[in-house]
Amino acid sequence: MFLEKITHCMVHQIPASSFTFPCMSPNEASVMPPTSGVVESPRLNGDHGTFETDSLVLVTKESFLCCRWSETCANCSLYTAGMETKKFISSEISVLASQQTGRVLIWALQCWTKGDLELFICILKLSNKKSLLNGEFTVNLLYVPSELSLEDMTTDSLKGKFMVTHCNCNGYVKCECHIPSLKLNYTYVMWLNFINGATFLQSPLMSLKPINVVKPEPPLNLRIEMIDKGELKICWSNPVMTPYPLQYEVKFSGNVTQNVVEVVTETSLIIGNKLVGSSYWVQVRCKSLHGPGFWSDWSTPYNLNTEDVIYFPPKILTSVGSNVSFHCIYNDKNKMILSKKIVWWLNLAEEIPASQYTLVNDHVSKVTLFNVNETKPRGKFFYNALFCCNQNKECHHRYAELYVVDVNINITCETDGNLTKMICRWSANTNKLPAGSSLQLKYYRNSIYCSDFPSIPSKSEAKECHLQRNQYYECTFEPLHLYSGYTMWIEIKHLLGTLESPPTCVIPKHVEKPFPPTNIKAEIARNAGVLNVSWTNQAFPNSDLKFQIQYSVDRKDISWKVSEFSAAPTRSAIIKVLDLCVVYIVQVRCSRLDGLGYWSDWSKSVHTVVKDIKAPLRGPEFWRVINEDPERKQKNVTLLWKPLMKNHSLCSVSRYIVKHHTSENKSWTDSVANGTTYTFSWTKHVHTITVLAVNSVGASSVNFNLTLSQQMSTVNIVQSLSAYPVNSSCVILSWTLSPPMHVVTSFVIEWKNLNEEKEIKWIRTAPNISKYYIYDHFILIEKYQFRLYPIFLEGVGIRNIFLSFSERSEKQNDAGFYVILPIVISSSLLLLGTLLISHQRMKKLFWEDVPNPKNCSWAQGVNFQKRMDIL
């Protein structure tokens, strides 16, 4: 019945204030007064002009009541089934109220849209003391949003579209209803119904637009700040999630003074310096600047008397090299200190020179710090503290904080070998940043090349970067514009402000990093004796690139050598190396020929294979050890030789060949595959041996020969042989010769520690020397034996033996001892005699000065003999 006649009923539009309404039962009959009129019974309550009406009529089944409220009055009319209108005057309403006491529920209702514009809230509070409701009851809010205005709505447009939300009630006192997901500019038609057992009550129809009843949250963070002229202002922050402009009411209240309210549209109000240290409290509330709406609740009070020292700004975040200024007002025990009597200290350790002060006015002092350095963390503190003090160097415990950050962050970028993406890297020491700082790479792409002096543009985009294990951030640009200029910088955000690193501009084409060469091959050329290196490239023609080859002998401590080739059309290079018989490690990398961009990574390492270049240059040096076997009446000869060095073997030795030739003109060969010794029986008077080295190329052509001759073994040309130790690693062996009858081709020196059973050591020397330095590890207290063999073309001469140098050293040391001992004894006796003579001389000199007791009164009675005995 209600919905069918909505076009004829005046619907109440909810104001931006509290109001009251009656709840009635549509099934009850009521007594109608005999006269007609209009009700005008205004009654305002509360800060918001809450309107209450204390009585409304009940209706029959064929009639219903419609009312329209305003903030000052209410007009009510009774409609019959035939749509005849009956209006009531105040007296008639009063009669109805007296007759129908207890049959009408009167509720105070306040509805608003939350400041974030996401939720509509209605709060209901019971106004009349007596109630028709007994026990538990249910309250529902029925509503329908429509794009149409209220005047354009029809009953048919609303039928079947009402939605229901349940209201949460706290006993009989208060109920709260929510409508989520608002459409701010739609018209909402709604009413409330109450169910209490068999009793069903409903409110009149209401309408509203959510945008017209917005109630913001109260302002936040009230604080005192200072402007450049030294005046103070009270500042605050907008409530969060407020997507519309606001106006503000600022209220000053004191213990005696009445409230003073000012309305402003900014988030600050200049209050001067007179209120500082007063007993005033400040509160702020806000409301939508345009259109109707609710005032927010008042903010938390701010006490102006709490500020003994005021710094502006209280904290500064700046970059290295900047100039910064702080202002200060010092209120000491409710007495303002003159600005000319204020001094500034840094970290309470360094007084800032007065030349950096500025007297803004009588009570405001300003200090300026020039070319500030980066803040060094001190424990948990990441700032420098500035203290405002009086002339007596008494400082308040409050201080201003200065955060100085080094924003010189280097950004490097590389474009991959496919020219499809660019990776940029940068590093920042976050340990030196204030807590709560965040870093982000910002960039702007120019359609043309980079400027010579890049600057930060007004428009920019943010790039997501990820922290890597090496503490670098990486950002990827994909796809790319190869010839566009990308201006980049790092933005450091903090509650205190935003800092920006110096911008850099990058052209992706100019920061290419090619892929490393592949299919690397390296080998030592046999004939030329050089290192040949070849490779292939993945993406670019050879004419666009230059190459570097690094190589090293494969060993534990690698020492790289690098050769660069500006162009390599054949994709190969030749490098001269000194040692051809070692394994080399080789790597190759490439870069753009014009010098732009980066070198590629080094290719995978390849190793050369050692191959024999030529036959060994010569055979090994060798010596013989002869062991006689008396039982068999034969001599066994063991040949000893040293392995060939690689520069002689070129590059390896696979086996050795021992050639024999006797005086009977017999020859044969033996092969020694492994080892450096060979033993045979010497049965002939003359036996010549030659040892050849063989590798994969061939046998050595220059070799050493040794002839064994029983006749030559008796030839002795060495007259003397001596050995002198220099230190534990060197012994000098010298000899003299008699005029030789045969040509000496060389000498062989043998030496051995007689206290050890190790094999003898030997070395071949030139024939034209008579002194040789033997380098070995010698134990000087041990006994050694040295032998010298002259080598002739016809055979080996007789050996000359030198006994251990340790025996001679002992004899020399003993002789020296017997010479030194008498000298030491004679010197000691001479020294003792000198001391005795000196003692007697001193006594004589002393007594010459002693006075005669007969002539001196003070000396009479003194026993000088006793004193002499003491001496």
Fold and architecture overview:
The chain is mainly beta and 871 residues long. It is built from 5 helices and 65 strands. Strands 1, 10, 11, 14, 15 and 16 form a 6-stranded mixed beta sheet that branches. The longest helix has 44 residues, at 805-848. The model is unreliable at 1-9, 24-64, 66-75, 79-85, 90-102, 806-819, 854-860 and 864-871 (pLDDT under 50).
Structural features:
disordered N terminus, mainly beta, elongated, 6-stranded mixed sheet
**Uncertain runs:** 1-9, 24-64, 66-75, 79-85, 90-102, 806-819, 854-860, 864-871
Q: Look at the structure and give the mean pLDDT.
A: 80
**Approximate shape:** elongated
Terminal Cα span = 149 Å
Number of helical regions: 5
Helix/strand structural class: mainly beta
Any idea what the radius of gyration is?
A: 57 Å
- How is the biggest beta sheet arranged? 6 strands, mixed
Beta-strand share of residues: 35-45%
Estimated helix fraction: under 10%
The overall strand count is 65
Keywords: Disulfide bond, Glycoprotein, Membrane, Receptor, Repeat, Signal, Transmembrane, Transmembrane helix
Membrane topology: Single-pass type I membrane protein
Family: Belongs to the type I cytokine receptor family. Type 2 subfamily.
GO cellular component, one term: external side of plasma membrane
